[in-house]
Amino acid sequence: xxxxxxxxxxxxxxxxxxxxxxxxxxxxxxxxxxxxxxxxxxxxxxxxxxxxxxxxxxxxxxxxxxxxxxxxxxxxxxxxxxxxx
Length: 85
Fold this sequence. Notes:
With 85 residues, this protein is mainly alpha-helical. It has helices at residues 4-10, 20-44, 49-82. It contains 3 helices and no strands.
């Protein structure tokens, strides 16, 4: 159900098309893409080993952050399910 026409009829403004979660996931995928490109460059021998280690560490940190956020969301959802109705 699209609420934008309803909001327009009520004088409200439609929600922006992007939000913080979308931007965060975009940044996450960009970071992983950069780490992958550094790894490919290291395989071909055209990358600095220090840059490769840095990119891989940043990628690992991004994955750990996403896993932590996922765990918190699942935990909150389970807590909501345990609430009495």
